[in-house]
From TrEMBL:
Mode of membrane association: Multi-pass membrane protein
Originating species: Carlito syrichta (Philippine tarsier)
Record protein name field: LOW QUALITY PROTEIN: olfactory receptor 1020-like
Primary location class: membrane
GO-annotated cellular components: plasma membrane
GO MF entries: G protein-coupled receptor activity; olfactory receptor activity
PANTHER family: OLFACTORY RECEPTOR
Amino acid sequence: MAPEKLALASSNHTPVTKFILLGFSDYPELQELLFGTFLTSMTVAGNLGMMPLICTDSGLHSPMYFFLGVLSFLDICYSSVVTPKLLVNFLASDKPISVDGCVVQLTFFVVHVTAESFLLASMVYDCFVPICQPLHYGSVMTQGTCLQLVAASYAFGGANSAIQTGNVFALPFCGPNRVTHYSCDIPPLFHLACADTARAETVLYAFSALVTLLPTVVILISYSLVLVAIGKMHSTAGREKALSTCASHFLVVAIFYGTVVFTYVQPHGSNDQSVTNGQVVSVFYTVVIPMLNPFKYSLRNNKVKFARQRKLQASIFPRMRPASLSVG
């Protein structure tokens, strides 16, 4: 344990009742730009539009679009857990959050981020089956299978959230309460604990690596088999279609897992530069990825475009019904 933490723990046992989220207060010149960026992310218009479109259009009732709808829901959830408080803090001079509020924020954030990690692996599996086992797709990717994969994603999310949140708040917080982050994230909270955090950090790295490694193995194996299958295709059009489908997914997967690994898996120093870098990187998976996912997955998809056009035309030009005839 650091000497200053030992001294603090021995001289002050008053528990912290609230934290101060410093956020981007060190960059006052960027406050307006950041406020506008995060305010835009609150709407996540593409995600909000995708869910009802997928539910109401019969042409989109397939496993691929079912997973896209769930992905949109997850993006909205974990972005909304963090962004409202951040927007309030941009306008407030004091930026407090209670310990209970911090627990709730961290709990729901980890649930949805972990669930998205496993959902992305499920989506790669859904990409793998029609390319590598096209004759078995209908029997493998049934409605029950899709629901089970989503339920499993949330089960992993709930388990990881319970472990990680309990791991953090089992530590005593009795000294500084200024969090060098815009949300209650795990690494900056470790810096405020007035106890040895070595064991807690080991738990963080181990379970973060586990929930990252399992989906990554599924994704790498699936993509390897998909690339082999694409290489054996004789049709150029078929290869291009398969590669286009996988390329958008691979880009989002790479950004998502790259930022998560940088934030939670690699060891962190206590210097300000390390903390600032972690804060900037976390913006990608709380703001940038939720905004990009609809464009990468959905808005470039012809079926989604046609479904959106049909809904728009139906709302502007409702189908005219023939007038009923009355017989006297």
